[in-house]
Design goal:
alpha+beta; Beta-Lactamase; Helix Hairpins; Heat Shock Protein 90; 3 domains; six-stranded antiparallel β-sheet; five-stranded mixed β-sheet; 9 helices; 13 strands; 23% strand
Length: 416
């Protein structure tokens, strides 16, 4: 018996060594299954071996196996399965014969195929998390698993955990590398774009200032050149403002300062600020503020609210060639609901989740035929979030976009 045990222990040690040395060539659960089946066959019946791995992002357990010579990955219920029971209880489970039948009946266990005669499962426990389970079962009554098999499986599970940990580490490193490279690429392109956005108006300002000094210039030409200088100066200042604001947001220096404001007056001011620009572009600007007079007085951060609305309206004007832009506001479920709706070029579905990202325009989310730093929507989202609200967009290409954002409604009371 001692010789038999010694030989078995030697085989187990060899199995653990083989698994450890093969881990770097094993890249997925199916390769791991092949490796474990081959190694475990030296000490137990491993014809029916499954691995179930937990995916924390979706909080589900998935079983990997070969079925009819095909790779199979299926979602595994946490309830009414032996693997789910092992995972939830974090303990190994060894069942055979009548004990297995009784356990299945007491716990309402459902088997995918026919009920086995012997079943052994162990949890895959990492240092900080549970990674899944590994189990082996048999339909042959002469091949029943025993406590010695359980100890072997628990040793194997330790090596499997190390292997999965390495997979996760490599995956995280790849993701981090891709994000770093993507961020560097976006920021590099962004800086190139900023150089363009600064040099273009500056060249215009300097050039037309030189022309204004020409002695034979007519008054009409001089006034036209002054208007161009004024427009370029405003574009230059807007670009600098966006850069300063996004820098404050990046460093967490954004603070909310609430003051007593009349929301109808705020909306009217935004309407007046953009009406002439819309008219010059051949667009209609419409406004609907669905607020009673007493509801209009509230507490808000006027500067940030102005910036949000201005960025959204300017964005709508920029990407709308014809039609109209609507500015709306109402109260819904004790929240202020703002909407900026346009009949513009729209946004492709694959870009909807990216347009609020910083530097995203620099990556081609917006066509470069449109001027701008590409920071307006990022600033708007940051301000909405800072003020306790949410922002979203719906869009259909060539039909238009609807930007919606909510803010907490904090009305002024009679005692204020």
């Amino acid at each position: 018996m001692d010789i038999t045990k010694q030989k078995r222990d030697e085989k187990v040690q060899q199995i653990l060594y083989d698994i450890a040395t093969s881990s770097f060539n094993t890249q997925n659960p199916y390769q791991l299954l092949e490796l474990l089946k081959k190694e475990l066959s030296l000490v137990m019946d491993s014809n029916h071996l499954h691995i179930s791995l937990y995916q924390p992002d979706v909080e589900k357990l998935y079983r990997y196996r070969y079925h009819d010579s095909q790779e199979e990955k299926i979602e595994l219920p946490m309830e009414h399965t032996l693997s789910g029971y092992v995972f939830k209880n974090r303990q190994s489970l060894l069942l055979s014969g009548d004990e297995l039948v009784q356990f299945a009946r007491d716990n309402d266990i459902q088997f995918v195929d026919e009920q086995p005669t012997s079943w052994l499962g162990v949890p895959l426990r990492g240092d900080r998390e549970l990674m899944g389970t590994i189990n082996v079962f048999s339909y042959d009554e002469s091949k029943v698993f025993n406590p010695s098999d359980k100890r072997v499986m628990e040793q194997i599970a330790h090596e499997v955990v190390l292997m999965i940990g390495r997979w996760n580490l490599v995956h995280d490193l790849v993701i981090a590398k891709e994000r770093a490279e993507g961020s560097d690429r976006l920021k590099t392109t962004f800086l190139m774009n900023m150089s363009h956005e600064i040099r273009t108006p500056m060249n215009s300002i300097l050039g037309f200032l030189d022309l204004i000094q020409e002695p034979d210039l007519s008054r009409e030409e001089q006034e036209n050149y002054i208007r161009i200088v004024d427009k370029s100066s405003r574009r230059f200042l807007n670009t600098l403002h966006d850069i300063i604001e996004i820098s404050k947001i990046e460093t967490g220096e954004t603070q909310v300062n609430l003051t007593k404001e009349n929301l109808k007056a705020v909306m009217q001011q935004q309407f007046e600020n953009h009406r002439e620009t819309c008219a010059r572009s051949g667009l209609q600007l419409k406004m609907n503020v669905d607020l009673k007079r007493e509801e209009s007085w509230l507490y808000t951060d006027r500067q940030k609210l102005d910036a949000i609305l201005s960025n959204l309206i300017s964005n709508a004007i920029k990407f709308t060639r014809k039609g109209e832009i609507r500015l709306e506001c109402s109260i819904t479920d004790n929240e202020l609901l703002f909407q900026v709706i346009d009949t513009g070029v729209g946004i492709p579905d694959d870009k909807l989740n990216a347009i609020f990202n910083r530097f995203e325009q620099a990556d081609g989310c917006m066509n470069r035929q449109f001027q701008g730093s590409g920071l307006g929507l990022a600033i708007a989202k940051a301000y909405v979030t800072a003020m306790g609200g949410t922002i979203r967009v719906e869009s259909v290409v060539n039909e238009g976009s609807r930007f919606q954002f909510t803010l907490p409604y904090q009305p002024v009371t009679t005692t204020d």
